[in-house]
Amino acid sequence: MEEESHILVKPKVNSSDDDDDIEESTSTSTSQQPQSPTRRRTTAVIITLTILFVIIGAILAAGAYDTRANSSQPDDTRLSSIKATRSIKAVCAVTHDPPTCVTDLTTLDSTNLYDPELIFNLTLSRALTELVRISTLPKTLISKSTDLRAGSALRDCVSLFDDAVSQLSQAIEAMKSGEDGRILNEEKVGDLKTWISSAMSDQETCTDGLEEMGSSDLEEVKMKVKVSSEFMSDCLAVLDNLEKILNLFGKKLH
Ligand SMILES: *[C@@H]1O[C@H](CO)[C@@H](O)[C@H](O)[C@H]1NC(C)=O
């Protein structure tokens, strides 16, 4: 029992020694506390400030880079859009309705084209789109018509419109092939004029036929054909004035 109690006591002493140690170490650290946290706080503030400066610096640098990148990009875009607007205006000036032409072509010009030849291509696209849009009209009218004589004139119109579409498509096709950016030469301009004129006269032949047969659909067809014909005659006007327009931009027909 004695032994046991001794043993029991001994650890107690030991543990109390430990406690003393701890207390001592705590007290030593307590005695240092007034200095250490201040230093630690100062260090923390310095580190925080440094990090802040680095972050702010990075943000400012990125901002400056961004501003430069952003300001140069719109400048380029603005410049090419100004150039594109100039060519569109020059091309549209020879058409029957310049303001509408400018609006239409600006809508079609998604990539800021400023080569008058490419702008001409837009007038051609506009003409083909309109022609294709109205080209189903004769078929629609045939399905409604009870007038036999007018019906035969309408059937002529179906094939005339088919031909007109294929003429203009040929013109569009010719605008696709260009060696090293050159699309038009005098010969091609001549071909384009021929195809466009043929498409125009197809439409005229159609309305003439309807008139001859006294078709009640004449007015509707004439009205629709009018816009399409105007777009095509715009294309011809641009081709007729192409040399002059190109000269404005210091260019020549190849
Ligand atoms: C002309 O326009 C047509 C679309 O109508 C396009 O496929 C063709 O590539 C254009 N030509 C040029 C040279 O951009």
From TrEMBL:
Specify the enzyme's EC class, one word. Answer: hydrolase
Domain named Pectinesterase inhibitor is located at 83-238
In terms of CDD domains, this protein maps to: PMEI-like_3
Q: Does the keyword Ubl conjugation apply?
A: no
Gene Ontology molecular function, alphabetical = enzyme inhibitor activity; pectinesterase activity
Keyword line: Disulfide bond, Glycoprotein, Membrane, Signal, Transmembrane, Transmembrane helix
Bilayer-spanning residue ranges:
44-65
State where composition is biased (Low complexity). Answer: 25-40
Q: Where is this region: Disordered?
A: 1-40
Identify the EC number(s): 3.1.1.11
Q: Which domain of life is it from?
A: Eukaryota
Q: Which family does it belong to?
A: In the C-terminal section; belongs to the pectinesterase family. In the N-terminal section; belongs to the PMEI family.
User: What name does UniProt use for this protein?
Assistant: pectinesterase
Organism equals Artemisia annua (Sweet wormwood)
